[in-house]
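Support reply, case 0932

Customer input (verbatim):
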Amino acid sequence: MNYSTLVIEKKENIGTITLNRPDKLNALSALAFQEFIAALHQVDHDDEIRVVIVTGAGRAFSAGLDLEEAKQGPSEFDLQATPIQDSLPWIPRSCEI
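Our regenerated output:
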């Protein structure tokens, strides 16, 4: 799958997901979050990947939420969002924020 906000690489048994919005300090927009969840599904379904590294392009891992986008109000994605644990059950409930 092609992503516009991140890059996935696989080398041997290691998967790397790189947040790729360095101009925005890898801030998570609704699209970036959707693509991140899709990328987690992709590596989860690859039986050869044993570990996943999440990193950020440029000088920051991630600034967090894309505040410029957030100022515009909730997106359709936000209104339909479900907890990440419902999508990826191997993430423990203790990680909820």
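We compared this against your earlier run and they match. Two observations from our side: The chain has a mean pLDDT of 84. The longest helix spans residues 30-44. Please reopen the case if you see a mismatch on your end.
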